[in-house]
Every structure is written in structure tokens, then in C-alpha cells.
Specification:
This protein is of the alpha/beta class. It has a single domain (2-338), classed as TIM Barrel (Alpha-Beta Barrel), CATH 3.20.20.70. The protein contains eleven helices and 16 strands. It has an eight-stranded parallel beta barrel with strand order 3-4-7-12-13-14-15-16, surrounded by five helices. Strands 1-2 form a two-stranded antiparallel sheet. The chain has a two-stranded parallel sheet with strand order 8-11. Helix 9 (294-302) links the parallel strand 15 and strand 16 (308-311). The model has no long low-confidence stretch (mean pLDDT 95).
Length: 363
């Protein structure tokens, strides 16, 4: 089956085309945000994935999400994550670390000294955020001064260095889902008039500077970028998404990075999809994500709409997802109530296939 055949991704010949998507499981320790032993077990269990992309790691203390989110900005983070990467490698796997900054999607109650979140422009996200005192509207962020953008860039560069020290095989720069980099990219959240705002070229500058740093540290074949042109849930938008993400794809192609990770489900109407356009403009590996099944993922690869497909909830509930796909076995059902909280339950206690177990195809 095509989905289970090897494939080239940057510097790696992956044994299959199943990517474990970055999943914010909120199991790191508080207040250190270092992954404990249960996180080591969780990733080791899923090492048969062609590639694991870790949960997003905060690059700085002023980017703090829900309790249990992980970080990559201290020596303690390096030491703790080294246990994870060692375990994955010992099990024969490969793992990239996803890195991000929340920008406007932070909240003062979780930030040092109750600081106001920062963003390209003082435009609040739509909706509410969970806080220690209950759901609250997203705050209006403080506009970053131009020199402060350089400091944030340095935070990303430092985190990339630390990821390498922690033994990760590469990094994925999180430019999706309305977080800081995405806020710079889109004109609905970036009304700046300096070198980081206005034209598509200027709005893309922050992302591309970070990518250049990652390429310098890891080499291009160990760098990926995730984007989400269809994400609008928090009010983020762009007046010309195809022009914007087409330009980004062009620039990533010039840099010859390993892959572009596109959140675009089969549910997106055909006339609104961007994968085909981006695939023409980016010659590295293309990963598709969001709600794929074994059948729809195989179809996407057979039709050459993607080189790899990322699975989220299916990897949460099925640590041996690759083998289950191979045997066409029944899948464990994910328990959504334990996705973002708890300890070992719903995290490392999902059962593996019994020896010889084989059942009808899953849908």
C-alpha cells in the first residue's frame, strides 16, 4: 500500500508516509514545563511513525498557554527533551520539534507579571480563552516595537539551538493556527507600516528570517514549516491567501527545506483548496493534515496531492497506528475528554494490537 511505502523527506528516507502530527497534550510538568517520564513513554510508543513532530514548544517565557504546555528555552528543557529524543531513537524513530510563540493568543493571567501579550498589531483574537478565573475574552495585545521583533527572532534562534542540543532530528516552524508567525503573515492581524508589515514580502519576513536561522543551525533538509491558510476560527484572515501562501511556498522552495506542512482537509471545497498550487511552487515534500483516514490519505498520495499525511487523533488513540493500518485492523476510539489534560489515562494507556489480531478495514 502506498501509504506504507518509504518516502524521501529532506535528509531522511522515512519507512512509511504516516506523520505523527504535533499534538498539544498538556502533560508537561508545572511550573517548569519540562516533559516528565510519561511524555518519554508517550513518544516512544509512537516511534513507528515515519516522522514524529512534537507538540509545540514555547520559545520564551512570555509565550505561555494552558497548564502542561511544553517549553524550549531553558537548560532544563534541553535535558528533559533529550530523554524523549533518546527514547524515540532507541525505538528506531525520528522526531522533529515544533516551535512557536503565542503572540496575541496568550493571556496576562498566565504570563510573568501579568504582562500584556504582544503581537504585530493591537488586534484582539475573536472568542474566549480559558483562564484560572474562568473563560475570558482574548485581550487586546500590545503592538511590538520594531526592535522587539529582533528579540523575538533571537528567542526562536535560541530555541532552535536548544532543540539541536536536545537531540531532535530537525525542527518545524509553526506558522499556523493564528499564533505569532501567522499573525505576522496575514493582513487581517498585521497593519504595520515598517519592514514587517504592508506587502506580502514584508509580512513574510519574520517567518523567513526564522527559517533562515533554522537552516543555518540544522541544514535545510531538517527544517519544516506548518501553515494553515483555511484557519479563521479566531478572526484571523487575509485578503489574498493564495498570493500570500504562494509567495511563502516560493521562498521556502528557494531555501530547499525538507517539507511544507499544510493543514487542508478533504472537507475543504475543491475550488478553495491550495495544495495543488503550493505543490507546484514548492518542490520539497508536502504533508497534508486534518481529519484524514487510511483511505483518504492513501487516495491523496496516489493522486499525488501529497507526499505524506499527518494524523493527530488517530495517533493519540493508536500508538501502533502504522501496524494497524498494515493489518487493516480495528482502531481504538480516541477519548476527547483526555486530549488536553490529565496524567497517564488517555495518554499512554491506549492498548496495542494483540498478536495476530486482524479485523475488517476501518473507516
Amino acid at each position: 500500500m502506498t501509504l506504507l511505502k518509504p518516502g524521501r523527506l529532506g535528509d531522511f528516507e522515512l519507512p512509511n508516509r504516516l506523520i505523527m502530527a504535533p499534538l498539544a497534550r498538556a502533560r508537561s510538568s508545572e511550573p517548569s514545563r519540562e516533559p516528565p517520564e510519561r511524555v518519554v513513554t508517550y513518544y516512544r510508543q509512537r516511534a513507528s511513525a515515519g516522522l514524529i513532530i512534537s507538540e509545540a514548544g514555547h520559545v520564551a517565557a512570555d509565550s505561555v498557554s494552558r497548564p502542561g504546555g511544553s517549553g524550549m528555552h531553558t537548560d532544563g528543557h534541553v535535558l528533559a527533551w533529550r530523554k524523549v529524543t533518546d527514547a524515540v531513537h532507541e525505538a528506531g524513530g525520528r522526531i522533529f520539534q515544533q516551535l512557536f510563540h503565542l503572540g496575541r493568543k496568550a493571556h496576562p493571567t498566565r504570563l510573568p507579571n501579568n504582562a500584556t501579550p504582544v503581537a504585530p498589531s493591537p488586534i484582539a483574537a475573536r472568542g474566549e480563552v480559558p483562564t484560572p478565573v474562568g473563560p475570558q475574552p482574548w485581550p487586546v495585545p500590545r503592538r511590538l516595537e520594531t526592535p522587539e521583533i529582533g528579540l523575538l527572532f533571537e528567542a526562536f534562534r535560541n530555541a532552535i539551538h536548544l532543540s539541536k542540543a536536545a537531540g531532535f532530528d530537525g525542527v518545524e516552524i509553526h506558522g499556523a493556527n493564528g499564533f505569532l508567525i501567522d499573525q505576522f503573515l496575514r493582513d487581517g492581524t498585521n497593519d504595520r507600516t515598517d519592514a514587517y508589515g504592508g506587502t506580502i514580502v514584508k509580512r513574510s519576513r519574520f517567518l523567513l528570517e526564522i527559517v533562515d536561522a533554522a537552516v543555518e543551525i540544522f541544514g535545510p533538509g531538517r527544517v519544516g514549516v506548518r501553515v494553515s491558510p483555511h484557519f479563521v476560527q479566531d478572526g484571523i484572515n487575509d485578503s489574498n491567501p493564495l498570493g500570500l501562501f504562494g509567495y511563502v511556498a516560493d521562498q521556502l522552495d528557494v531555501r530547499e527545506i525538507a517539507y511544507l506542512h499544510l493543514i487542508e482537509s478533504d472537507a475543504v471545497p475543491a475550488d478553495q483548496r491550495v495544495a495543488a498550487t503550493l505543490r507546484k511552487r514548492f518542490r520539497g515534500a508536502l504533508i497534508l493534515a486534518e481529519g484524514y483516514t487510511q483511505e483518504s490519505a492513501t487516495k491523496a498520495i496516489v493522486e499525488r496531492r501529497a507526499d505524506f499525511v499527518a494524523f493527530g487523533a488517530l495517533f493519540i488513540a493508536n500508538p501502533d497506528l502504522v501496524e494497524r493500518f498494515r493489518r487493516r485492523a480495528t482502531l481504538n476510539a480516541p477519548d476527547a475528554t483526555t486530549f488536553y489534560n490529565g496524567g497517564e489515562q488517555g495518554y499512554i494507556d491506549y492498548p496495542f494490537l494483540a498478536d495476530g489480531e486482524e479485523r475488517s478495514p476501518q473507516r
